[in-house]
Design goal:
4-stranded antiparallel beta sheet; globular
């Protein structure tokens, strides 16, 4: 199947997979392989599934064939409050973040492994990077994953496009979308199984929206969502006149 792969900007955390068939065509399975599950530590030390992340590849500056993987997720998935309904808690440039989170990754051997990721939003050991606009609910973390151990796929950075491309691609209210994210009632025993939801873009504005007293860049999407979907990439279908 001939595919065109596009990613929307980190500023809006909206990502797109464009292909030349109708919505009835099943989604490419590769999409689910860039998704990882994020766990946090519960009050008794137990691991609790909390949200979704996905992997984006940044090209090596001296070797175009190498990619460095980065974990991209919603900032509130890493937050001590974990409440996306309170946007003002994210206005602080460095947090408040949990001391660490855990990633549930598939291995090439057919098993699962949980790896611990410390969260350092500042100082010399910084590994959590945020958007310059503190209202953007987005965090990026560099990862060092052994390619011979873990089974994963990444989006290359050169497929990232800006919000300004939306009009060119006829992305507007009514455009069809889908996303793949964590489904806490069933995570999988030997594999990660992201749940795939479908919907439509309901509102795109050219200005910030007042969200609980904070002006933020937001898109409204008409879909069914679950708590663990936070941080999941959102994909959209192009207008047929583009193809």
């Amino acid at each position: 199947m001939l595919c065109r792969l596009k990613l929307a900007s980190f500023l809006y955390s909206l990502f797109a997979f464009l292909w030349s068939n109708a919505i009835a065509v099943p989604i490419p399975s590769d999409i689910k392989e860039v998704v990882v599950f994020i766990y946090i530590e519960g009050p008794k030390g137990e691991l609790v599934p909390n949200g979704t992340g996905f992997l984006v590849g940044v090209e090596h500056p001296r070797n175009a064939e190498r990619m460095f993987p980065y974990l991209v997720t919603a900032k509130h998935v890493l937050s001590q409050t974990q409440d996306v309904l309170l946007p003002h808690v994210f206005l602080k440039p460095n947090g408040p973040f949990l001391p660490h989170v855990f990633l549930r990754l598939e291995k090439k051997s057919g098993a699962l492994e949980i790896i611990k990721i410390p969260l350092v939003p500042h100082d010399a050991e910084q590994n959590v990077f945020l958007h310059q606009d503190p209202t953007v609910d987005l965090a990026v973390i560099p990862l060092w994953l052994k390619e011979d151990v873990f089974a994963y796929k990444i989006f290359p950075e050169n497929l990232i496009l800006s919000q300004e491309k939306f009009s060119e691609l006829n992305i507007t209210e009514g455009s069809d979308i889908f996303f793949a994210g964590l489904f806490t009632p069933y995570l999988g025993e030997k594999k990660n199984y992201p749940v795939v939801r479908f919907g439509h873009i309901a509102l795109i504005t050219s200005e910030k929206i007042n969200w609980n007293g904070t002006m933020m860049d937001l898109y409204l999407i008409e879909t069914f969502s679950y708590g663990g979907n936070s941080g999941a990439p959102i994909f959209f279908y192009p207008d047929s006149s583009d193809l």
